[in-house]
């Protein structure tokens, strides 16, 4: 919904500006100001279990390891870039997560890691109705810091891996990660 008098920010991708309320755009602009505090990295064993990825569209500027063959950082604004190949998506959390998942659902090739907030509109729209498979991970994950060390405490919510595309669903189904896989039929 676009409100009267709402100011558009050119850095915000056009297709999302159309639907983003002002509050969300502000949150988005806030997120784009990098402060290094949101750098919770995927545990490397998860990446190892899922094979190689062509692109991480939201990678840390300073990272202890490469996540995919190609990375976009906050300086590139990965949401505005063209995504190609098999995408690994552990998006910035908060109000803008849905924008990343929307783009992932449209792209249709890759695996996303997000919190299991299964009742939300975002989850229904971009996962339950759009993904090909989902794995609920056993136990809370311990994300990694930019120093390459595991966080001192587990994260605040359960996590899921979400597969887009049949090959990624098969990869999730067969992988050795501890969790429960469920096949989905996009509707
Ligand atoms: C939850 S972390 C995940 C990091 C990495 N993708 C991984 O799986 O380990 C989210 C990352 O998104 C980056 N980020 C935030 N806004 C971004 C943007 N507009 N474009 C690209 N990256 C962004 C942050 O700097 C942070 O590194």
Describe the structure.
The structure is a single chain. The protein has 187 residues and is of the alpha/beta class. Helix content is 27%, strand content 16%. It has a domain at 37-51 and 88-183. It is built from six helices and seven strands, in the order αααβββαβαββαβ. It has a five-stranded mixed beta sheet. The protein has a two-stranded parallel ribbon with strand order 1-2. Helix 4 runs parallel beside helix 5. The chain is globular, with a radius of gyration of 16 Å. It starts with 13 loop residues before the first helix and ends with a strand. Bound molecules: S-adenosylmethionine.
Quick take:
With 187 residues, this protein is of the alpha/beta class. The chain contains 6 helices and 7 strands.
**Which geometry do the CA atoms define?**
globular
Number of strands: 7
Q: Give the biggest sheet.
A: 5 strands, mixed
Report the radius of gyration as a whole number of Å.
16 Å
Low-confidence stretches: 1-21, 23-31
Q: What's the SSE pattern?
A: HHHEEEHEHEEHE
**Range of strand content:** 15-25%
Count of discrete alpha- or pi-helical segments spanning 4 or more residues: 6
Bound molecules: S-adenosylmethionine
Spatial strand arrangement across the major sheet? 3-4-6-5-7
* Class of secondary structure makeup: alpha/beta
Can you tag this structure with a few keywords?
6 helices, five-stranded mixed sheet, two-stranded parallel ribbon, binds S-adenosylmethionine
């Amino acid at each position: 919904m676009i409100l009267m008098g709402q100011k558009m920010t050119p850095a915000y991708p056009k297709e999302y500006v159309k639907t983003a309320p002002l509050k969300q755009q502000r949150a988005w602009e806030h997120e784009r100001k990098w402060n290094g505090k949101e750098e919770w990295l995927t545990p490397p064993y998860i990446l190892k279990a899922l094979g190689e990825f062509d692109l991480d569209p939201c990678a840390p500027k300073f990272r202890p390891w490469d996540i995919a063959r190609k990375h976009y950082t906050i300086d590139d604004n990965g949401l505005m870039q063209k995504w190609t190949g098999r995408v690994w998506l552990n998006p910035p959390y908060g109000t803008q997560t849905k924008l990343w998942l929307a783009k992932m659902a449209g792209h249709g090739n890759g695996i996303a890691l997000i919190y299991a907030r299964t009742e939300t509109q975002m989850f229904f729209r971009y996962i339950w109705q759009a993904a090909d498979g989902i794995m609920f991970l056993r136990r809370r994950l311990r994300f990694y810091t930019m120093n390459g060390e595991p966080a001192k405490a587990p994260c605040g919510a359960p996590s899921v891996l979400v597969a887009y595309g049949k090959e990624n669903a098969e990869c999730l189904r067969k992988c050795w990660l501890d969790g429960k896989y469920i096949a989905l039929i996009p509707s």
